[in-house]
Amino acid sequence: MNKTWLVAKETYRREVKNWSFLLMIFAPFIVLIISFFFGMSSSSAFDDNTKVGIVSQNEGLAQPLKKTKDFDMYKNKTKAEKAYQAGDVSGYIVVENTFAQLEATYYGTERLDSDLKEELMRGLNAQQQVLNLKNAKLSEQQLKSLSQKVKFTEKTNSKKLDANDEKNLKTATFWILIFVLYFLVQTYSTIMAQDIASEKGTKIMEMIFSSMPGGNYFDGKVLGIFMEILTQLIIYALMFSGFYYLAPQIDRVKETFAQVKPAIDQVLGQIISWGLVFVILGLILYIVYAAVCGAIVTKAEDANKAVQPLVYLTLLGLFSSMSLSNNPDSIFAIIMSYVPFLSSFLMPLRLIKGNATNLEAGVSMVILVIFLIGSILWIRKIYPSLILQTDDNGMWKNMKRALQGIKE
């Protein structure tokens, strides 16, 4: 057991210290951060360039608009025109009081932005209402009646979602898990195959196998790769946790985050489900067979070719779940939900859509676990024969020779 752990630690140390691992971990976040800051700066530049000048003697209109960042107030049309020509504002609006009615005229190269127009019209309508009441010369009682407002009471239970919301969140959780499985398999199956292929046929392997069973060495390699996967997931979890708790403190983010936080909480609560179990088991299965793919080649550069069958299987599972998402009760979906390699994609889909029971999920999981255990025991036996072969006879011939060696 100690030697197995040493192999695992050495595999983990070598993979994690690689620059490609660090790039794989942080590249998505670097892109997101750069995009965020560019978006923020572009938004600020856009806000600065879309300021609109207001020419008005109406203080009731000028005071509320002065408090916003979208309007600049000018005393007369001449100054507003100069600011427009200088590029300080994208246009200007002249507001006049004619026959107890406010009239606003916009001057600019392009049409007034719809959001700015809506904000301006709220202020204009409020002032127009003041003029209307003043000109109507109503009594105090009549003014009081006109100022009566609607009484609105809102009673909600934020912890409870309707059936449609829960269904949508379950579907979102499923797609998150499926895409996590797909990308982890695509990434780490190649890493596993290349790591093992790089050791193929070296003299040091003969020395290692003379001091420890080949099956234990295989266990250490798989354990080391899973420690690398766990490291990546922990880093992502810590980064997400940091964002989750810091987002409410960021001015430009907190309002949007507050709106989506209930949905995020629901998705996080649903992550621990049958879907997560199938994703974990499926990932282990793919990584174990990636080790075989790396062991049957004679050159490290052929590892990518050897792992192609696993790539095709993940693509089949992904596209099948996408195409059958609206027809999860088809015979094809039912059969695939019990087939190892594919059940990790299809059974969670059937559960979310309500086309499979917990008993069916349990049966599928038992089949997957039995197949996984059997695969591990079988691979541990043939692994030494595969890794020590140096003849360039092709992948399938190498596999056939390894199986013949086991039988003998």
From TrEMBL:
Q: Which InterPro entries match?
A: ABC-2_transporter_component (IPR051449), ABC2_TM (IPR013525)
Bilayer topology: Multi-pass membrane protein
Q: Which residues form the ABC-2 type transporter transmembrane domain?
A: 19-376
Task: Spell out where the chain crosses the membrane.
Answer: 21-40, 172-193, 222-247, 267-297, 309-325, 331-349, 361-379
Q: Which GO terms describe its cellular component?
A: plasma membrane
UniProt key word Transmembrane: yes
Q: What are the alphabetically sorted keywords of the record?
A: Cell membrane, Coiled coil, Membrane, Transmembrane, Transmembrane helix
UniProt keyword Cell membrane present = yes
GO MF entries: ABC-type transporter activity
Record's Pfam families? Answer: ABC2_membrane_3
Recorded coiled-coil stretches: 121-156
Localization per Swiss-Prot or TrEMBL: Cell membrane
Q: What is this protein called?
A: ABC transporter permease
Query: What organism is this sequence from?
Result: Lactobacillus gasseri
